[in-house]
Amino acid sequence: MEEESSQNQGGITPTPQQTNPSPPMPGTEAPAVGVSQTPQTSVMGTVNPNKGGRGKIFIWVILGLVILLILAASAYFLGSGKVPELISPKTETTQESAPPNEEFSETITSEPQVVEGTEDWLTYKKEGQFSFKYPLEGEIKEYDDGSIVVSQWGPTQKEGTEFYDGLSMSFRAFDPEGKTLKETADEKYLQLKEVFETTQPVVASVAGESGYAFRVQGYVRGDYYYVAINESLYLEIIDATKDPTNAGFTTTSEKILMTVTLGP
């Protein structure tokens, strides 16, 4: 008995008498069952309340409840597969326009241009495909692959040699076999690029329609043009004109190109 009395005098808080627990203050949580909470004590063994801390505890409790509600709502939506409209807003989609002359619903028909200096020229017409005008001095030849060539020798051109002086333009309508106009131009470009210096295809106006064009440079020089007559028929134009003496053949080929029309 004497030992117990001496321990109590050493500052150890005596075991409080069991009383009915009072309900927790508003804004505070009740102590968890089975968890021992040791109150702060003074030297005399009485409870020293944390003055001014109730407001802070109340704020933390509210924040904790809000976080729990957010987590619970997120878990519900993720688990059920439902997503609020604010998270996944509806968006409108627009159809992108197709590249030039790659898709058609009808045959293209272009009106012939009035080109100065071509009033008395002759007209070549391939029914349902294309037509063009050419000078009286020009010669027309048709080949087995369907090419139509208009040519005129220059003053220095010699028979039995390679072509190096004069007017030379070929026209050929062909089936693209399912390829787009750009794919067709790119394919020809890659073939020629293996042998000659060739510029990359660019969008160009041919017969008043959007097409593609590129140039083979160097000694073997030529301008290649591709345009669609309709969805199953394309037109290839090769301008291989050479004018070393400035006799006007380059100007003539440009005028011929301006007179090209497509369709019926």
UniProtKB/TrEMBL annotation:
<feature type="region of interest" description="Disordered">
    <location>
        <begin position="90"/>
        <end position="109"/>
    </location>
</feature>
<feature type="transmembrane region" description="Helical">
    <location>
        <begin position="57"/>
        <end position="78"/>
    </location>
</feature>
<feature type="region of interest" description="Disordered">
    <location>
        <begin position="1"/>
        <end position="48"/>
    </location>
</feature>
<protein>
    <submittedName>
        <fullName>Uncharacterized protein</fullName>
    </submittedName>
</protein>
<keyword id="KW-0812">Transmembrane</keyword>
<feature type="compositionally biased region" description="Polar residues">
    <location>
        <begin position="35"/>
        <end position="48"/>
    </location>
</feature>
<keyword id="KW-1133">Transmembrane helix</keyword>
<keyword id="KW-0472">Membrane</keyword>
<feature type="compositionally biased region" description="Polar residues">
    <location>
        <begin position="1"/>
        <end position="12"/>
    </location>
</feature>
